[in-house]
Each structure stands twice: as C-alpha cells, then as structure tokens.
Amino acid sequence: MSGFTGFVVGAWAFLTAALAIVVGWFLAVGVYRDAMKLEAEATSRKTILAPPWVWAAATFVGGILPAVTYWVLHHGAFKGEFVATIGDASSKGPGTVAPPSVTT
Predict the structure, then answer these.
(1) CA-based end-to-end distance of the chain
(2) Is residue 93 part of a domain?
(3) How do residues 16-51 score in pLDDT, each as one tens digit?
(4) Owning domain of residue 37
C-alpha cells in the first residue's frame, strides 16, 4: 500500500473501532442501569440468567447481540412465561413432569 492509502485504511479502522467502543459503552451502561432498576423495584423481579454486571460486561464486549438478548428476556412479549418457567420455586427443576394421576 502506498503511504496515503495506508493512512486512510488505518484512520478508517481506528474510527470504526472507536465508534464500536463508544456504542458498546453506552449500551452497557444502559443495560446495567435497567438491570439495577429491575433488581431494586421488586424482589420478585430480578435479572434472568446473570447478575447486572455480567449483562453489562457481555454487552460491552459483544455489542448489540447481548443487548438485544437482555431486552428480549427482560422486556419482551414472552418474559412472563420465561420467568415463570425459570423462577418457579415450587418446581423440582427443568424438565420435571408430574406423575400421571391414577384412578381406581
């Protein structure tokens, strides 16, 4: 590569990386604040699968995919079903099936 072309490619790569870091930071802060709000609002509604700092770290490193995953699990249309399945204290664990009733 010539000097100018190398400079342009390097500058473009730097700007892209800087933008990704800034966007990741803002997404991570938003996810962390929302997760802490969920934790503080009610004892029955906690973050799913991980504590707030793990969601924030995953969002910072992974970008939009962990942020969307967080939103779907905590604010999506089926969140109540997922929370009921995972957080049900009366269940004996995932995949547990009640025995069939026997009538005589």
Answers:
(1) 86
(2) no
(3) 999 999 999 999 999 999 999 988 876 566 788 889
(4) 3-87
Total count of domains within the chain: 1
DSSP per-residue string spanning 16-56: HHHHHHHHHHHHHHHHHHHHHHHHHH-TT---SSS-HHHHH
Rounded to whole angstroms, how far apart are CA atoms 27 and 21? 10
- Residue 28 near residue 56, CB atoms below 8 Å: yes
pTM beyond cutoff 0.85 = no
Q: For 91, list phi and psi in degrees, rounded to 5.
A: -80, 155
pLDDT digits (tens, 9 = 90+) for 49-86: 889 999 999 999 999 999 999 998 888 776 655 555 55
97, 99, 101, 102: CA torsion to nearest 10: 150
Residue of 13, 15, 10 whose CA lies nearest to 2: 10
